[in-house]
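wait is this the right file?? whatever heres the structure
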């Protein structure tokens, strides 16, 4: 599959290069959406991402979560060899609606705000990952539909909801429900821009949430960012609480900068009492509450990219904005990306015995000893992107994760017997390719392919040969060592953006 995907990517690159060398330019596509929709400082924002997907190993679309489980880096562990061919949504970007506010206050001060919420355009509902566990409670693996842990759990504003003030000299302060520094960072330095279908960083919230998906967005938080020339630094704090991503408090720091075509960023994050939902197969049949592993999480991350501008701004390539005559003409760009994160889950210093997950879903079994010794993930990623001046971009990316061998509920990885458990060391690999063509400023069409595989402890608890982890009568079963779980997918579609 790797060789096939690489051949496809090389073929796309060759075709694009041939067309460009021949000075071929595509016809302009009329853009009916105005460039400026701002009214009294309020601007509507949103995205609608729809298309088709085929997956070699996955689960059917769910009654709540109608997206596919694109990556086997997941707690659901419910791949059973079934191929899926379906209409899909949000392959490149979470479909959402919202508004942003930027209103001058005088003296170089501005009032700013943002509110947005993820939607499922195939169902006409708000995104609700937690409900997908309820829909699959106690259902056998081979009968489950798609489900996934998420910080988007049916809240009215399951994305961001914050307000604040900004000043070029004094910085920017926002208060409310905000992205973590890590989520903001990987959105910039992931070559696939957090694509659900093509990026581990996009599909799984583990990296963006410092180890816990529900903690990728912080409720009850204050966030401060200061720019000094090419340097950027920031700090944020949240007091957490019930029905958020973590019950305790959390704090994070960010430091970055840019010089010419190079930019980089480092982040440090600490969260207390974070929520990690357990698989729906662990729940009782027709259950209406959720089970979770509780943890204190720590993440350290560094990431960067470098962009080369190729050619001259006097290029004859067409511009698709209405202000084309007043703007410099675009040039080709080539960008390389790289990043590393170290994520640690440990037992919470303050045990959590009751409460709710994001969205207010009741938790009735909270395991405060799921990480008797720390579970450690090492994330690595790299990629390249070539942007043609006339609108086409080609991207390739590679993602890798290592998991250590750790002790959970006082049970270690089995030393003998050939069994693999979720506490055993394991690995994850993913390679992805994307061709995305901007027809105009607000509409693009795309086609992509991806292949991903888990092995060792990260492959345990998928249906297969026995492995063991027992918690209060719940037995996790998984494949023996060497029994890797893999899936491949192709997606195509279109995206409309405001």
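ok assuming it is, sequence goes like this
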């Amino acid at each position: 599959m790797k060789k096939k995907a690489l051949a496809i990517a090389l073929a796309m690159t060759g075709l694009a290069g041939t067309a460009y060398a021949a000075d071929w330019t595509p016809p302009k596509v009329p853009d009916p959406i105005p460039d400026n929709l701002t009214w009294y400082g309020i601007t509507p924002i949103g995205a609608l991402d729809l298309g088709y997907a085929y997956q070699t190993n996955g689960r059917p679309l769910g009654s709540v979560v109608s997206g596919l489980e694109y990556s086997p880096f997941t707690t659901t562990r419910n791949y059973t060899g079934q191929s899926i061919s379906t209409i899909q949504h949000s392959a490149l970007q979470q479909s959402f609606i919202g508004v942003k506010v930027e209103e001058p206050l005088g003296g170089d001060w501005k009032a700013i705000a943002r509110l947005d919420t993820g939607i499922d355009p195939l169902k006409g509902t708000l995104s609700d990952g937690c409900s997908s566990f309820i829909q699959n409670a106690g259902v056998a693996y081979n009968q489950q539909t798609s489900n996934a842990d998420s910080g988007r759990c049916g809240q009215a504003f399951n994305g961001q909801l914050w307000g604040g003030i900004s000043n070029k000299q004094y910085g920017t302060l926002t208060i409310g429900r905000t992205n973590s520094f890590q989520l903001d960072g990987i959105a910039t330095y992931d070559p696939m821009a957090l694509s659900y279908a093509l990026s581990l960083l996009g599909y799984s919230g583990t990296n963006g949430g410092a180890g816990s998906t529900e903690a990728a967005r912080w409720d009850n938080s204050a966030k401060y960012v200061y720019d000094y020339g090419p340097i950027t630094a920031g700090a944020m704090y949240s007091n957490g609480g019930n029905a958020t991503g973590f019950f305790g408090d959390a704090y994070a720091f960010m430091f970055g900068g840019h010089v010419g075509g190079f930019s980089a960023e480092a982040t440090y994050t600490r969260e207390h009492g974070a929520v990690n939902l357990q698989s729906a197969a662990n729940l009782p049949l027709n259950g209406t509450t959720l089970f979770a592993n509780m943890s204190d999480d720590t993440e350290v991350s560094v990431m960067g990219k470098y962009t080369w501008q190729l050619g001259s701004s006097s290029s004859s390539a067409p511009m698709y904005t209405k202000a084309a005559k007043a703007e410099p003409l675009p040039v080709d760009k080539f960008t390389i990306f790289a990043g590393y994160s170290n994520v640690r889950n440990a037992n919470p210093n303050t045990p959590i015995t009751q409460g709710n997950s994001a969205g207010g879903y009741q938790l009735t079994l909270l395991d405060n000893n799921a990480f008797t010794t720390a579970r450690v993930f090492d994330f690595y990623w790299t990629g390249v992107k070539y942007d043609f001046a006339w609108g086409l971009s080609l991207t390739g990316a590679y993602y890798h994760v290592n998991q250590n061998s750790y002790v959970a509920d006082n049970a270690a990885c089995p030393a003998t017997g050939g069994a693999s458990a979720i506490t055993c060391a394991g690995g994850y690999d993913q390679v992805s390719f994307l061709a995305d063509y901007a027809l105009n400023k607000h509409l693009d069409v795309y086609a992509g392919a991806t292949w991903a595989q888990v092995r060792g402890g990260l492959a345990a608890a998928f249906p297969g040969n026995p492995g063991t982890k027992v918690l209060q009568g719940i037995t996790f079963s998984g494949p023996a060592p060497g029994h890797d779980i893999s899936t491949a997918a192709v997606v195509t579609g279109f995206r409309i953006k405001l």
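DSSP finds four helices and 22 strands in the chain. so i think its the right one actually
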